[in-house]
Write a structure and sequence with these properties.
Layout: E1 3-8, E2 16-17, H1 18-23, H2 31-39, E3 43-45, E4 48-49, E5 55-56, E6 61-66, E7 83-86, E8 90-95, H3 112-120, E9 145-151, H4 154-165, E10 170-178, E11 185-189, E12 192-194, E13 202-204, E14 212-221, E15 224-231, H5 238-245, E16 270-278, E17 285-289, H6 294-305
């Protein structure tokens, strides 16, 4: 009995070939494997058979039928989870730095998903985002530590995703950035999309998706600021791109900031430190806050000592 996998196409900046899209989903060994499935009519786009060259776009639904031996499932790993909140439907973990949230084509081990699967298994996590992202509702960059919501079932997943979409879930970050601000609070509202010249990066581009970040200065130093950042949207690298665009790059962000800093840290000095959301079981509002991580404390200690 073949297994059915459904992929919902989202976050594309332009249409992409069907075979290229599926190859990027990481559960297939190669593009030739994908093309073979398409030829055998084991791939449907919105319920219809399409050619490998068919261009898929946002909101398309792709269904793939795989035999057991062709599917590549991620193995659970006994990695300790720092669980900050948990009920029957939802958990919130404090993700450490140097951990990616879900597997990629290059890395299939030591991710947050590997740890979640060891503790909960596929049956204990939502499957809306596919077999590589069980339970994952939103993401953090590898070297951004902090709070991340995980759904244990599809009802919880949809409940949390709707809060993010409607901006009722409040996600706040801490960061140390270069420069000082004339206005101590403000809104950064610039569209973000894929950098046309460097595909590994995002950028402010005219045809990008609407992206809004709110900032508030918490503490100032000579040439640096400690800020709180609130996401109103959730684009890839949003905070890092926005802060770079307004010339307040995050300290030690090697992708968007080439300015050297005297204190070494595990990449960008950025942490998801606060979450506010409603829980499914009774619609109660949960507000969680964690202490600044080691890198933020280390950098602040240095800056305070050099005043």
């Amino acid at each position: 009995m073949p297994k059915k996998y459904i992929f919902s196409v989202q976050s594309l900046t332009s249409p992409i070939r069907l075979d290229a899209f599926l190859t990027s989903q990481d559960i297939f060994k190669s593009r030739s494997c994908v093309q073979n499935l398409i030829k055998k009519s084991q791939v449907l786009v919105n319920g219809e058979v399409k050619k490998a060259s068919f261009l898929v776009k946002n909101d398309d639904e792709i269904t793939v039928f795989l035999s057991d031996e062709m599917s590549i499932l991620i193995k659970g790993e006994d990695i300790k989870l720092d669980i900050v909140y948990e009920d029957d439907d939802i958990l919130v973990v404090n993700k450490p730095k140097n951990m990616i949230v879900h597997p990629t084509s290059k890395e299939t081990e030591h991710t947050l998903v590997n740890a979640l699967l060891y503790k909960y298994g596929y049956e204990g996590l939502s499957d809306i985002n596919g077999i590589l992202r069980p339970g994952i509702v939103h993401r953090l960059d590898r070297n951004t530590s902090g709070l991340l919501m995980v759904a244990k079932n599809n009802n919880a997943h949809e409940f949390l995703a709707e809060q993010i979409k409607n901006k009722t879930a409040i996600r706040k970050y801490l960061a140390v950035v270069h420069g000082n601000f004339e206005q101590k609070e403000g809104i950064i509202d610039y569209p973000i999309g894929r950098n046309p010249n460097k595909p590994e990066k995002m950028a402010v581009v005219d045809d990008g998706k609407p992206s809004i970040t709110m900032y508030k200065v918490l503490e100032e130093f000579k040439g640096f600021s400690f800020v709180e950042l609130t996401l109103k949207t959730g684009r890839t690298h949003q905070i890092r791109v926005h802060m770079s665009y307004i010339s307040h790059t995050i300290v030690n962000d090697s992708l968007y900031n080439k300015i050297p800093f005297k204190v070494k840290t595990t990449e960008q000095v950025l942490q998801a430190y606060s979450l506010k959301f409603a829980v499914l079981k009774n619609n109660d509002i949960i507000e969680l806050t964690i202490d600044p991580d080691k890198d933020i404390k280390k950098v602040l200690k240095y800056l305070r000592s050099t005043r």
